[in-house]
Amino acid sequence: MAYTAAGEGAKYVDNVERVVLEQLEDKKPDMVRDLFTEMPWNPGDGDKVTFNSIALSGFAPRVDENESYPTTNPSNGNELSKTQIQYGDKLEISRRMVKFNRYQQSRFDAEDLASRIRNTLDLELTLQVFSEADQTTFTPAGKSAYNIATSDGQALASASHSYGGVSFSNLLSGGGALSQSNLNAAIEQGQQETPDDFGTYLTPNYDTLVISDNVYMKNKAFQLFGSPLTPESGNNAVNFYNTESGMKIISLKFGNRNTLGAATTDNIYRWMIMDSNMARRSLQLQLAEAPTTEQQFVDHDNLVAKILVTQFAAYAAVQPQGMVYSLSTTAPTIS
Fold first, then answer.
1. Which are the contacts of 8, defined by CB distance < 8 A and separation ≥ 6?
2. CB within 8 A of 144, min separation 6: which ones?
3. Where are the domains of the chain?
4. Per residue, what are the HEC states of 243-265?
């Protein structure tokens, strides 16, 4: 192809536009932390964290006249122990960078570094609860495999869970694409098969849909929940979910990223429903340190300063109750 200035200019503009859009996407708040309950950390606590589920049976017994009430004491359910993970990023500023303002890095500040750490933690939370939910481990960039199994040793999304002697699956059979019928099937499956820690059946109230940051998935979610009419039909029946009490939709901006943080098409069409109150008893996060900046001026011949940002965090999915997954690989049909 012959060289043209216009053609090269178009390439340049396209590249700049893509870079800028990518940065804007990364600046969006990530809703994944809405799925987790943050547990308090106190100075002096060790770096080992024990996450406990909160377990009470789903039903209370009948009591006849003059009969004593049975005693039900709140107790910790299943538990998982995790060690605080250390995250960090460092920037070294040289005299040449400052003198000639030659490199973009010389204009970075601590907030840029802190944002990178927050992105890493949000990516790992997303891998735990969504992108790698059907796996028992994932491998962070440059590190060994990290165990993300639940307290029964299974993947968060698994057909082989067992609690209180009751086996159950929180994987939608067939892994169908997001639709009204598959949504109903997932709700029915979760309501029929979910036991608590002691094997007593629960009835989850599914109030949240979780999807990746994908246009087809967003459009389908709006069709299901945003229209006042019944979705996927032409009649005028009222759409129950188009109310203030309807399902909350959480679109995960890192839902289409792999363990390296690179965009992938592997998980863009999977989806899950959750009872948010029940799920937040299982999905737990503890920050022993938010992104903290340390600045150091050095005497080396070429370096002027160093900026170091660190964070300590631990997270776990203790158990799978209140969550049903569809590992769909098919785009939803937009009616």
1. none
2. none
3. 31-53+77-222+253-326
4. CCCCCEEEEECCCCECCCCCECC
- Residue owning tokens 């069409």: 269
pLDDT at position 95 is: 78
Residues 6+ apart with CB under 8 A from 195: 163, 164, 166, 168, 201, 202, 321
Question: How do strand 85-94 and strand 137-138 relate by DSSP bridges?
Answer: unpaired
Residue 195 has, within 13 A of its CA and on its CB side, a CA count of 14
Distance CA 155, CA 188 (A): 21
Instruction: Give the residue from 92, 86, 27, 85 showing the smallest Cα distance to 308.
Output: 92
Query: pTM value?
Result: 0.81
DSSP 8-class letter at 306: E
- Residues 167-209 pLDDT 10s: 999 999 999 999 989 999 999 999 998 988 878 888 899 999 9
CATH number of 31-53+77-222+253-326: 3.90.1690
* Tokens at 217, concatenated: 């998935």
Q: What is the pLDDT of residue 94?
A: 79
Q: Which amino acid is at 253?
A: K
d(CA 92, CA 306): 5
d(CA 94, CA 324): 52
Which token pair is 241? Answer: 């979910």
